[in-house]
Amino acid sequence: MKKTSYRFTAPKAPRLSKDFFANRRAEFVKKLPANSVAIIVTGPERTRSNDTEYAYRPSSDVLYLSNFGEPECVLAFVKGKEDSRFIMFVRPKDKMREIWTGIRHGVDGAQNEFGADEAYTIDEFEKVIAPLVDEADTVLYRLGRNEHLDSRFNTVWSKTQKPLGNPEEILHEMRLFKTAHEIDIMRYAGKISAQAHVEAMRLSRPGLMEYQLQASLESVFRFNGADYPAYTSIVGGGNNANILHYIENRAELQDGDLVLIDAACEYQGYASDITRTFPVNGKFTPAQREIYEVVLASQKAAIAMTKPGVRLMDIHETASNLLRKGLVGLGILPKTHLTAEGEKKAIEAWQKKKEAAKTGSAASSAAKKGAGKKAGSKSAAASASEQEPLRLFDFYMHGTSHWIGMDVHDVGTYGTRSQKGKKRPLKPGMVFTVEPGLYIAASETRVPAKYRGIGIRIEDDVAVTAKGFEVLTADVPKEVDEIEAVMADGRKHCEHVEAVFAGRSGNR
Ligand SMILES: [Mn+2]
């Protein structure tokens, strides 16, 4: 039977076990300095309007170490000379509040469900941590994550002025390397998001609103058990694709335009991040296809070079050089721009020429005053300074990659401070995006008219393995022929459904 829907129910959705979190905590404590206390606070709740709040998203660090999702939570790790303790501070049980806003695990839950050695209600925070801070040689606390808890912590810490370390330096280095279980979750998030993109392709047609594709995408996320979109969904038809973080999603999709979708779900606290660009009506125009193939070739080559030892800056350079090559091939960039170095030289030469023309034209107008000659040199000077030459940055103004994990732009350093750029060699367990794009504004008159208003980005999530890589978001097509086939099939299905409805109403 032909597959008519890409939605799937998932009996085998992977979940992180209690052991996973216990292991994370053990590893974290191992990395703490001797005789220290590390305190990790969750983020505050945020008001949306009047007395309603945004859906609460716990801080990734707290989720990573405990899987505890309630607000007003603090984790404390005491590393003593002989043993260590894991302490949780949580909201107290409250019958009335729980009727209104849901179950609270309370102190007992923290111990029985979440593995705390000791647990207290959050109002006991200062009283409990004061002696711990007193006894420790080093206190680890990152200020700035929760203003209210910062000031409460500060009342205790300010009395001792113990050396203050940053627990995130340890935690974020850990989070950068995903375990096999975490990759399972991220692969699953990628599958859900991929299916959502396929559904959007199948649904797309001129006259639909951008937000209708958004609704379809987010419906597939939620239908499959994802918690939220991992970031605000971007659905940009036509020239809206050239606004990198376009989230209005209120325009009508036009026949003959492309639509760029950058949307993906978060599943069990782990993000995915996918961008696809496809023709609203299901068929690329020759000009759209030309630009698309350039971006696709760049993206595929950048992914293909992924393996341990390669650096994100190498991947960015490969992607950028292929974009250059493609744009030169289409006559959009001059032949001088095949490399970043060549482009730099060409721009410098142009600037020199402009300067020379300026002084030349000043000289010539001075000469004109004097002798009334040299009109020809003046017009040459004007044309040389007329238009600034294009550069790759005019069409590709963002990086190719970012880490991805519990945060869509995940934590973890890209290189030591002394290194400039993303120079850190890749290792197994790192996960990042590869997302080259080309954005040709409708107003860009230096480019042939047929290319104006085309904005294309193609993005996948890539995990580094021992020998190479795994694309976690491979389930959504990106080849031109595949996209057109999926869209043609989707169109057929929509027409079939419409015919069924039309027939039913006719029979009444
Ligand atoms: Mn991204």
Keywords for this entry:
508 residues; Creatine Amidinohydrolase, Chain A, domain 1; Creatine Amidinohydrolase; 3 domains; 6-stranded mixed β-sheet; 3-stranded antiparallel β-sheet; 19 strands; globular; binds manganese (II) ion
Give a brief description.
By secondary structure, this protein is an alpha+beta fold. It has 14 helices and 19 strands. It folds into three domains: 18-176, Creatinase/prolidase N-terminal domain (Creatine Amidinohydrolase, Chain A, domain 1); 180-333 and 390-480, Creatine Amidinohydrolase, CATH 3.90.230.10; 347-386, no CATH class.
Notes on the structure:
The chain is of the alpha+beta class. The protein folds into three domains: 18-176, 3-Layer(aba) Sandwich (Creatine Amidinohydrolase, Chain A, domain 1), CATH 3.40.350; 180-333 and 390-480, Creatine Amidinohydrolase, CATH 3.90.230; 347-386, no CATH class. The chain has 14 helices and 19 strands. It has helices spanning 18-31, 60-66, 95-101, 106-112, 125-135, 147-160, 167-176, 180-203, 210-223, 286-304, 312-329, 340-371, 375-386, 480-507, and strands spanning 36-41, 47-49, 52-53, 74-79, 84-90, 118-121, 138-141, 164-165, 228-229, 234-237, 258-262, 265-267, 270-271, 275-279, 431-434, 437-440, 454-457, 460-464, 469-471. The strands form six sheets. The protein has a six-stranded mixed beta sheet with strand order 6-5-4-1-7-8, with helices on both faces. It has a three-stranded antiparallel beta sheet with strand order 9-12-13. Strand 2 and strand 3 form a beta hairpin. It is globular, with a radius of gyration of 28 Å. Mean pLDDT is 91; it is low at 370-382. Bound molecules: manganese (II) ion. Manganese (II) ion binds next to loops.
